[in-house]
Structure formats: C-alpha cells, structure tokens
Design brief:
Blueprint lengths: L1 H11 L3 H26 L3 H24 L3 H22 L7 H11 L2 H19 L5 H37 L9 H17 L5 E7 L2 H8 L1 H17 L6 E4 L4 E7 L3 H16 L2 E2 L3 E2 L2 E7 L6 H17 L5 E3 L3
Parallel strand pairs: 6-7
Antiparallel strand pairs: 1-3, 1-6, 2-3, 4-5
C-alpha cells in the first residue's frame, strides 16, 4: 500500500508531457529487447547491436526526463532519434522495416507541436524516399511514398485540430470569465510548476495577494454590475503594470494573487506599493475611489503552495488590521 501511495504521489507531481515522454521512452526501450534476442539467435549481429544502442538511448531519455523534468527539447530529440533509427534500420535490414515508420510518424506528432512535427516528418520522408528508391519497383515506391505523405498530412491536420480544441478548453477551464484573469485552478497548476522548478534550481520567488477594501459597500450601494466593472478595472490595472510572465489570478470574490515574482522580497514590496498607489489614485466606474490591502510573501524551501499562500494571506490580514490601504510583508 505504501509503495502504491508513493507511485501515485510521483505520478501526480508529473505533467502530462512528462508522463508521455516517460511512457514512450520506457516502453520503447523494453520493446527493443525481444528483437535484440531474436537478432542474436539468428546471428544478425549488426542489427542486434543497432537495437541494443537504440534501447540504451531510449533508456537514457527516460532517465533524463525523470531526473530533470525537461520536456520541450527532449520531445524533439526523441522524435529525431526514433526517425533516424528507423531510417538506418531500413537501410540495413531492407524495406520490411517500413511498417515501423508509420507508428513512428504518428508518435512524432503526438510528442511535438504540429508545426515542428511537420518539419521533422517531411525531412524524414525525403530521406526515406532516397533510401528505398533503389530497393523497390517504381509502382511500389510510389505507393509507399504516397501512403506515407497522406498519413503525414492527415496527422498534421488532425493534431492541429486537437491543439486548437485543447487551447479553447484550457481557456475555458483556467480563465475567469468576468475579469479575464487566471482562475484558482490555473493558480494551483502554476504554483506546483514553480515549486518543482524552484527545487531544481533555487531562485527568489514571491507572490502578492491583495483584496479590495470595503468592497461589500460598493455592491450594496451601487449594485453588483458596478462591482463587476470595478473588478474588471482592477485586474486591468494590474495586468498593465506587471511584466508579461507575471500573471494575475482571481483567488476569491474580490481577492487576487500576482505570481510569479522572481525577485527578492524587497523588490516585491516595491511592486505591491506601486500597485496600491495606482489603484488608490484611479477613478473607477460611477466616480468611485477605492483602495486595496496587500500581503507579500517569499517562498521558503520545502513548504507547500498552500502554506506559502497562507503566509501571504496572514500578511494581508495584518494590512487590514493596520487600517487598510497598505502593503505588509511576511516576516516569519
């Protein structure tokens, strides 16, 4: 049971792309071993050696992804290696190996963005044509190349469509419809990724949590439509005054979080006070003047995302207790 919990915990901390790469590299490495044995039994030493090298390389990809959690370049490298291996195998063992080219082509699209996959596949198909031309009759050559190109372009359009659909679904799942900020679900994912990144290479990491002062009064006196307009304006002010990689998340009704701030706590406090001043001096819908209270906390090694937010939230509570319209730094 403890082993099962440990495995479940490890998997839950991995991104989808990591799991794909680990699965493809691990299973491919295992699949090579039966072929190595068959080639050794039939004294086909060259192909056996090639399969053994491929199994070793795939195992290396598995270990690299498992330890570093880097996926973008690994996906491209893994695809190029698999395509290259299939081409070499076809050159050495003959056109019978062409059947392995088709699933490898689809795997290339599964592992990479469709545009990158298209570039890799077209280059590979060109080399494939050069290799098999002397090995086949003209009609056979035409059938192989045409079927490969058709599969390639079908894969391109299918995976492009899937990517566009996934992007739309992700926006629906992670964007707050009112303010166009990221929502709490997106925040949880981002914090997990940041903590994993921090654990690989420590760097200063802060967050700001802020809350509108006396927002209930706005809703009670002016109505929820005016209140909604205020929330939209608040989020726009913050978006316009933070860097592109610093995102704003709607954490609660009128509570927001700015993350990631890859700066020391003093610089994060400067940004918090800048945002506080901008909001204080802004005139909102219905000629309203509003303020915000802010809490700032720097990430501590080995703490959870919830603990990190709790410390910032406690600093926000202190700001409220100190009279509001103030930024307070967590000093615990």
């Amino acid at each position: 049971m403890n082993f099962y919990k440990k495995i479940t915990s490890v998997i839950s901390q991995r991104t989808h792309q990591e799991m794909v790469l680990l699965s493809v590299s691990g299973l491919t490495a295992l699949c090579f071993f039966p072929f190595i044995i068959v080639r050794l039994v039939t004294n086909d030493w060259n192909i056996a050696a090639l399969n053994a090298i491929a199994a070793g390389v795939m195992s290396t990809f598995f270990i690299y992804v498992y330890r570093t959690r880097k996926t973008d370049i690994t996906s491209i490298g893994l695809s190029i290696f698999l395509m290259g291996f299939i081409l070499i195998d076809i050159f050495l063992a003959g056109k019978i190996i062409i059947y392995w080219f088709y699933p490898t082509l689809i795997a290339t699209y599964y592992l990479n963005p469709h545009k990158i996959a298209l570039e890799i596949s077209l280059i590979t198909i060109t080399i494939l044509a050069i290799i098999i031309y002397p090995l086949t009759l003209p009609i056979e050559f035409a059938i192989i190349i045409m079927s490969t190109l058709i599969l390639n372009f079908f894969s391109f359009f299918i995976f492009r469509s899937i990517t566009h659909t996934n992007d739309k679904l992700e926006n629906l799942a992670t964007i707050d419809s009112l303010t166009q900020c990221y929502n709490r679900r997106a925040l949880e994912t981002q914090i997990l990724e940041l903590i994993n990144k921090y654990n690989r290479s420590s760097f200063p990491l802060c967050l700001i949590i802020f809350d509108l002062d006396h927002f209930k009064v706005v809703n009670d006196n002016y109505g929820h439509l005016v209140g909604d307009d205020v929330l939209k304006e608040i989020s726009q002010i913050v978006m316009n005054n933070t860097r592109s990689f610093e995102k704003i998340y709607r954490y609660g009704g009128e509570e927001f979080i700015v993350l990631p701030l890859e700066v020391e706590i003093k610089e994060a406090m400067l940004l918090a006070n800048k945002l506080r001043s901008l909001i204080e001096n802004h005139t909102f819908s219905s000629n309203l003047k509003l303020t915000v209270s802010l809490g700032v906390a720097q990430y501590k090694k080995d703490e959870t995302g919830d603990d990190w937010i709790k410390r910032a939230d406690f600093a926000l509570y202190k700001a409220k207790q100190s009279g509001r319209n103030i930024a307070v730094c967590d000093r615990s």
